Amino acid sequence: MSLLPDNPSESVKRLNQHIYGTQVTPQSIAAAKVPKRIRQSSQRPNRLETEGLAYLKATRPHDGWRTQSLRFRLGNGIWFKPDATNTILNIMVEFKGPHAFRGGFENLKVAASLYTEFMWLLVWQSDGQWQEQIVRP
To answer: Are residues 82 and 116 in the same domain?
Structure first.
């Protein structure tokens, strides 16, 4: 009695040539390679984040501002990525628009309580003026 399936597909045979005894050719090896997974880190900042970063650079003129460059682990499988960071000044910034949802505020508050070595800022725009609030743990 064999533990192999009775009717394997061609792709299974191609990926398991050592089991099914098919001939190994460069074409079959190339066909068996799985393409790399597309990473999501190539996301560009949106309009609010771009304008907010310009505001931060004007009010805190210092090199080192980066967008979405650090990830902070909040829990089992939960990560938080601030919209703007400046590791030279130890500032992490989250921008919120007029339609901000509650979950984003909670993650920001948890990140501020876990990583107290950074200053956490919440920045939003109200009536055309930028507002800032330091998030306390």
So the answer is: yes
